[in-house]
Structures are given as structure tokens and as C-alpha cells.
């Protein structure tokens, strides 16, 4: 029975996550959350706590699911930072193309609505964005590039990643989104290439 109950809680959390993801925090009413999860207000509060507490659990759930996919993509190509970034964007593009989930990104949606969030929730969103940047930065190892360049590239990659989510919500086509990701990867490759050029010239 405990396994069945846990399954139901996770399923309800996923449904609530989709409501926040689609509507944003401000427009995710308790009625909409209850309708999606199949729980009345009493059961909703009893299971997840307040709306703010439920929102934080949904953010954590989202970060757990997609964070694991990002981590796998970024660590699958050691020594090849450009391929790692390509794999990173592939995760995002696959999620955007998945018809079973809302368009965009829950973290990007939440960041855009930061004025409506309480400070604790804002801090969580900022922390999740920083975690994504740290993951990308770890994958961007290059013997010829200085730390500042790699830090800036990591921030750039995360910024592009979030822009893909926003563009998808605005109706950008798959072709356009893939073009943005491809150009971003070219920028990463060119930047790392320029960092290596002085060493190559010196050796020549």
C-alpha cells in the first residue's frame, strides 16, 4: 500500500508541476491545481502544504528530472566541451518537442515571474539557474582557455538555453530553435579555438 500511495503522490506532483509550468505561479490557482491533481483543497494542503510549498516541491521535481538528463549529457563527452554543449542543448530541444509536457521551461517561466514570487521561492529559482551554470562550467574544461573565458561561456550557454524555452513559448519553429542552438555551439567552438590559437602559433 505504501508503494501505491507514493506513486499517487508523485503523479499528483507531476500534474501540479505541469500547471505551474504552463500557467506560471501567479495564474496557477488552487482550483486549477486541484483539478489537475484530482485533490480537493483539504487534500492538496494535507499532502503538499501551502501553494508556495507545493511550488517549491514542483521546482525540485522539475530540477531532479531534467537536471539528471543535463548531467548525463554534459558528462558523456569528457574532453570535448563543444560536443557536451551540443548534448546539453539536445536535452532542451527534446523536452520542447515532447508533446506530453508544456512548452518552455518551468525554471525560465518562474524566473520571468520573479516579482510575483516570495523571496524563498526566488532564491530557489536563482539557485537552480546557478546549478545549471555550474554543470555547464564543469563541462567547459579547456587547457588553453582562462577561467574568466570559461565562466563567461557557461553563462552564455545557460542564457541561450533559457532563451530557447522562451522562444518556444512564443511560437518559434523547431528549425529556428535548432538554428539558435547550432549558432551557440559555433560560438563556443570559436571562442575556445581563439583561446588555443596563441599556443598553436607559439608552437609553430
Description:
- This protein has helices at 2-23, 30-37, 41-48, 51-75, 81-97, 106-112, 119-139, 147-169, 174-203.
- It has 204 residues and is mainly alpha-helical.
- It has a single domain (51-203), classed as Tetracycline Repressor, domain 2 (Orthogonal Bundle), CATH 1.10.357.
- The relative contact order is 0.11.
- Looking at the overall shape, the CATH architecture is Orthogonal Bundle
Note the overall shape. Answer: elongated
Annotated CATH topology: Tetracycline Repressor, domain 2
Count the strands? 0
List key phrases describing it.
disordered C terminus, Tetracycline Repressor, domain 2, 204 residues, 79% helix, disordered N terminus, mainly alpha, 9 helices
Describe, in short, the structure shown.
Helix 5 runs parallel beside helix 8 (about 145-170) and helix 5 runs antiparallel to helix 9 (about 175-204).
Describe the secondary-structure layout.
Elements: H1 2-23, H2 30-37, H3 41-48, H4 51-75, H5 81-97, H6 106-112, H7 119-139, H8 147-169, H9 174-203
Amino acid at each position: 500500500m505504501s508503494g501505491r500511495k507514493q506513486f499517487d503522490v508523485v503523479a499528483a506532483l507531476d500534474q501540479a508541476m505541469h500547471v505551474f509550468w504552463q500557467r506560471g505561479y501567479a495564474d496557477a490557482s488552487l482550483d486549477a491545481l486541484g483539478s489537475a491533481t484530482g485533490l480537493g483543497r483539504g487534500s492538496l494542503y494535507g499532502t503538499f502544504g501551502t501553494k508556495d510549498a507545493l511550488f517549491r516541491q514542483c521546482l525540485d521535481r522539475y530540477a531532479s528530472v531534467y537536471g539528471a538528463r543535463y548531467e548525463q549529457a554534459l558528462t558523456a563527452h569528457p574532453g570535448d566541451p563543444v560536443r557536451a554543449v551540443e548534448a546539453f542543448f539536445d536535452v532542451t530541444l527534446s523536452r520542447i518537442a515532447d508533446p506530453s509536457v508544456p512548452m518552455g521551461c518551468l525554471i525560465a517561466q518562474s524566473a520571468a515571474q520573479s516579482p510575483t514570487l516570495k523571496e524563498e521561492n526566488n532564491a530557489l529559482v536563482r539557485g537552480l539557474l546557478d546549478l545549471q551554470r555550474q554543470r555547464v562550467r564543469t563541462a567547459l574544461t579547456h587547457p588553453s582557455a582562462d577561467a574568466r573565458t570559461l565562466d563567461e561561456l557557461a553563462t552564455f550557454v545557460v542564457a541561450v538555453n533559457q532563451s530557447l524555452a522562451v522562444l518556444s513559448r512564443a511560437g518559434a519553429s523547431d528549425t529556428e530553435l535548432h538554428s539558435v542552438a547550432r549558432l551557440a555551439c559555433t560560438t563556443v567552438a570559436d571562442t575556445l579555438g581563439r583561446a588555443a590559437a596563441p599556443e598553436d602559433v607559439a608552437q609553430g
